[in-house]
Amino acid sequence: MPRDLLRLLTPRTIAVIGGGAWCASIIKAAERIGYDGEIFPVHPEGKVIAGRQAVRALSDWEGPIDAAFIGVNRKATVDVVRALRALKAGGAVCFASGFSEAGAELSDGVDLQAELVEAAGEMPILGPNCYGFINALEGAAIWPDQHGCGTVERGVAILAQSSNIAINLTMQKRALPIAYVVACGNMAQTSQAEIAMALLEDPRVSAIGLHIEGFGDTAEWHALALKAAAKGIPLVALKVGQSEHAQAATVSHTASLAGSHAGANALLARLGIPRVPDIPSFLETLKLLHTIGRLDQASLATVSCSGGEASLAADTAHGRALRFPPLSATQRAALFEALGPKVALANPLDYHTYIWRDTARMSDTFAALSGPDTGITLAIVDYPHTDATDWACATDAILAAAKRTGRPYGVVATLPELLPLDVAERFMAAGVVPFMGLTEAITAVEAAARPSAVAPEPPLAGGAPALAQTPGQTPGQTLSEHDSKAELARFGLAVPASLRLTSIKHLEARLAQLAVPLVLKAEGMAHKSDAGGVALGLTTAEAVRAAAAEMGGTSWLLEEMTTGAVAELLIGVTRDEAHGLLLTIGAGGVLTELLQDTVSMLLPVTRDDIKQALTQLKCAPLLTGYRGKPAANIDAILEAVLAVQDYVVAQPHLIREVEINPLLCTASRAVAVDALIRKATS
């Protein structure tokens, strides 16, 4: 049964347990936002704190307790939680640290956190190591520090896995109405996804921003994404960890290319949640989602009175999933009527300053630029902080154009400090997005225009049994190439006909089983082509013997050579413990590390998912026929990827890595000429 988080987050009675200073801070934060419910301190001396009489024990309070702030030491916190549960309290914020986050320093931290969860039972708790929450809709706060929130009637919810970042976000001065701020703490019992699902029940929440350090239960996140989509409430993520280095000491190419950053991106893509790179973009995206919601097209028009700003807008959008639609004949006619013959008509548009102060013609210009295939129109206007009186015409013209067309509009200051707060609030009230920063505005537009479809199935779980590991060795069991191919072939993967050799004598009779030309590979050698462990184009037994003698070793794999390849691909699956089983498709062979041309998705995937991923590769033109060469057999490639997936899905908790590199793609086939499988040891 779901926990009743809304009682905790919308309290009418708050208990504050702890020292006088903490109690005073909580009371002050609540009073700052205008809390008019009951709030009482609990202190063993029964003293007066911040003008309020304390009770000596929780049991002395005669009424209900909807929420409590626990500001005592970590071990006493467990006892207080147990007492609150017995009193049928609505929930608690556990401020103390020294639990699982300090596991390396405190030997009992993890066990104490488990004890805390057991003490809470079904009573919801936030934390431990948590700052609490602010509810600006109800004017309620459990927050032991300063905050910058004021009451609002509707706004965004922000859930942060860092209390300090949460504090800073409350201080924003960007005209963004914030309805809730929740610091998630350790999430010992109540997860970030669960909190977000509870806030989806409040119809006054317009969008939810998620500062994420780690996901936890990916199935729960999938449930959140589905619920948000059903309610039409957009989500946006600020996921940290983008700079984590790829694994260097790995057996496979796939593991070195697909780190946790790729896993996080794949999970968010699967959930239909856009990811933004920084806090300013996070706030500007939330502002856009609150004001307009998701955009119906990944396109924009920009208008400014400077060619330099028009160029900046174009350059900032370059390389993103956005386009500037060309002007239609109707738009050109309307713009010519407003601007005359001296202005070059284009999108982005530099309308010069010929019509400055002519509000009607400025409005006609801004309105004409918003066409039916334009997701949003951005007017770039920097208001001087010295005297912006003469800029009122631009404000009035933008507002008039937005009202006339009924289409999404935004105003953009290239520097955040060049959009006065009162002007920004006026735009917000009229449904025009006041963007503070050009890069942030373009980032927000791209995020709001990104496809938001949620995959019907959650990702396969990422957890796996512990691996046996010997110092200096790769953990788990790594199968030989021969055995790897044999296992995958049972699931439909096309592999070359082959022989495994432990002797290079008496080859003539055995070679009759294979068709020349042949490939010889030394076994037990990682990255064989780099180490001289591969010989191609062999046609006689003598050539095979000579190649084996040159590369050395005691066993070899002899295969029929696949010819006529038009492209080489990599297909790999790695286990991302934080996100799930990650499928990577990319350029293969000798180009793997050179190009790092890959697309990653979480399993399971569909045939259409794979086909779409192939089109995103830089090497995609090779698959469709390049400079007169034949096209690859796309259906055969799809079947190869699906065969790898079928193999993994049949034993998901055993698989650590699977890699095909290269998959040789010809006009008729897709053949795995090299394969690697690493499993957990049972």
What's the level 1 CATH class of the largest domain? Alpha Beta
Total helix count?
23
Number of strands: 29
Sketch the major β-sheet: 7 strands, antiparallel
How do the strands and helices of this protein lay out in sequence?
Blueprint: H1 5-9, E1 13-18, H2 20-32, E2 38-42, E3 48-49, E4 52-53, E5 67-71, H3 74-86, E6 92-94, H4 109-120, E7 125-126, E8 133-135, E9 140-142, E10 155-160, H5 163-170, E11 178-183, H6 192-199, E12 205-212, H7 218-231, E13 235-239, H8 253-257, H9 260-271, H10 279-291, E14 300-304, H11 307-317, H12 329-339, E15 349-350, H13 359-369, E16 376-380, H14 392-405, E17 409-413, H15 421-429, E18 433-436, H16 438-449, E19 477-478, H17 481-489, E20 498-501, H18 507-511, E21 518-522, E22 534-538, H19 541-551, E23 556-560, E24 567-576, E25 580-587, H20 592-595, E26 598-602, H21 607-615, H22 620-623, H23 634-649, E27 655-665, E28 670-672, E29 675-679
Parallel strand pairs: 1-2, 1-5, 5-6, 6-7, 10-11, 10-12, 12-13, 14-15, 14-16, 16-17, 17-18
Antiparallel strand pairs: 3-4, 8-9, 8-11, 19-29, 20-23, 21-22, 21-23, 24-25, 24-27, 25-26, 27-28, 27-29
Helix pairs in contact: 3-4, 6-7, 10-16, 11-16, 12-13, 13-14
Please explain how this structure is put together:
The protein is 34% helix and 21% strand. It has 682 residues and is α/β, with parallel strands linked by helices. The protein has four domains: 5-240, Rossmann fold; 295-449, Succinyl-CoA synthetase domains (Rossmann fold); 497-560, ATP-grasp fold, A domain (Dna Ligase, domain 1, 2-Layer Sandwich), CATH 3.30.1490.20; 567-679, 2-Layer Sandwich (D-amino Acid Aminotransferase, Chain A, domain 1), CATH 3.30.470.20. The radius of gyration is 31 Å and the shape is flat. The two termini are 35 Å apart. Mean pLDDT is 91; it is low at 243-259 and 464-474.
